[in-house]
Amino acid sequence: MQSGGPEHYRPFVQAYGPYIYKTVFAVLHSPHDAEDVTQEVLLQIYRSLPECRLDGLKTWITRIAVNRAIDFKRSRARRPEEPHGSEELLEKVQGDGTGGSAAETIALEQEGKRQVLEQVDLLPDNYREVVTAYYMEDKSYEQIAAETGLERKSVESRLYRARSWMKRHWRKEDFE
C-alpha cells in the first residue's frame, strides 16, 4: 500500500474511508461537507504515504482528518452570508404566506435580535468583544486584531472558543 500506484487506491479508500468520514463528520455535522472533506483527506493521505512511517498510522490519519475538517469549518465561518434571494425578499414584504404581515415578520426579527444581544451580553468578557466585533459589526480578523492589540491567530482562536462556549451554554429555549 505504501508504495503502490493507482491500483492500490481503491483498497486504501475501502480500508480507511469510513473511519475518516466518521472522524470528519464528528467535526462538521454535515454529511455533504463531510463527504467532500473526506475525499480531500483521502487524496492528501494517499499522496503522502510514501514518506510516512507506518508506526502510528491511524493517529497520523486522524490528525490530518481532524485538522482538514477544522480548516474547512473555519473557511466556511469566514465567508459572508449569502444575500437573500429576490423570492425570499418578496415573501417578506408580502407576508410569509401564513397570514402574517411584513410588520409581524419585522417585529419577530427584532425580538430575535434582542434575545441574541441579551445572550451575547452574558458571554465571558474576552469572548464578547470579538463576537460583537466579528458578527455584529462585520469586522474582519485583521480589524479586530488591530483594535484589540491581539494577534490575528488569537482573534481566530477566541472566536472558535466563543462558538464552543455558546454551543455548550446556550439552549434553544433561551431564544423562544
Task: Tell me about this structure.
With 176 residues, this protein is mostly helical. It has two domains: 6-78, RNA polymerase sigma factor, region 2, helix turn helix motif (Rna Polymerase Sigma Factor, Chain: A, Orthogonal Bundle); 100-175, Orthogonal Bundle (Arc Repressor Mutant, subunit A). The protein is built from eight helices and no strands. The termini are far apart.
Low-confidence stretches: 82-90, 92-99
CATH superfamily of the largest domain: Winged helix-like DNA-binding domain superfamily/Winged helix DNA-binding domain
Shape: elongated
Quick check: average pLDDT?
77
Q: What would you say the CATH architecture of the largest domain is?
A: Orthogonal Bundle
Q: Span between N and C termini?
A: 54 Å
H/E topology pattern: HHHHHHHH
What Rg, in angstroms, do the CA atoms define? Answer: 22 Å
Residue share in helix:
over 70%
Number of helices: 8
The domain tally reads 2
DSSP summary, beta strand count:
0
Q: What's the CATH topology name of the largest domain?
A: Arc Repressor Mutant, subunit A
The CATH class label of the largest domain is: Mainly Alpha
Largest sheet, strands/sense/barrel: none
**Which structural category fits the helices and strands?**
mainly alpha
Strand fraction: under 5%
